[in-house]
Amino acid sequence: MPDIIAHPLSWPLRAFRALAARAGSACPACAGAARGGRLCPPCVADVLKPPYGGAPRCLRCALRLAPALMAGGAGADAPLCADCLLHPPAFARTIAAFDYEPPFDILIQQFKGQHRHAMAGALADLLYQAWLERGDTMEPPLHAVIPIPASRASLRRRGFNPAGELAATLAARAALPVWRAALHRQREDGRRQASLGRRQREAAVQGLYRCTRPVPGLHVALVDDVMTTGSTVDAAARALLQAGAARVTVLVAARTPAQR
């Protein structure tokens, strides 16, 4: 179980969340019976079940690996993908709840495309459970949760920052403080990251973020909804390390798989 720093909620908020968690609802994945807007237990098990015969993830970027292609060798304790072995990112580790592919990519599409803010709870639960299962060696303990800032164009289009909502819900689940304004976007170019190729993404995010608060010697978690190439979280992690952070761990709901 990951080490956490207590951040107690007020009793009215705890009571409200406890009541909401018991309310009946439809599972966002299968429309079956669930509670509190979350997934039903069978869908949770299916989402978190490793695909491709239980192939491991790269320890650094959470890319799902074929055992024969692991840079650390099949059965290695800390497998790495070729990219992370040749070009180590600024962040130390990534934990992803599931792969961004059918059938469960619909969860992200509902959250972002359909503006279903309540999906933050379902996604945060999945990510927190993945964290509990895979983050038991996370040292030193995490001090805070920091969301990736959204662009102004994204905020106008959606009306909210998906990473911010996910980070706030996850932080409450893990009893950690969330620092929403710890990172600042230093420019806006109007282009959507989803429309850019890998090299374009890397160029677009260089020097994009600035840390706005002291983080000396702290271990912080960067939170985003989807990780594709890792360029965005890498740029954000570099800004945090430049501000004095000791270690950056990335927590994402979904990881885009490699082309197979």
TrEMBL record:
Residue span(s) of domain Phosphoribosyltransferase: 156-259
- Gene3D superfamilies from the xrefs? 3.40.50.2020
Q: Which domain of life is it from?
A: Bacteria
UniProt cross-references to SUPFAM superfamilies, sorted A to Z? PRTase-like
Bilayer-crossing residues are none
What is any Pfam family matched here? Pribosyltran
Q: Which CDD domains does its entry note?
A: PRTases_typeI (cd06223)
Family membership noted in the UniProt record? Belongs to the ComF/GntX family.
Q: What PANTHER family is this protein classified in? A: DNA UTILIZATION PROTEIN YHGH
Q: Please identify the protein, giving its name as recorded.
A: Phosphoribosyltransferase domain-containing protein
State the species of origin.
Bordetella genomosp. 13
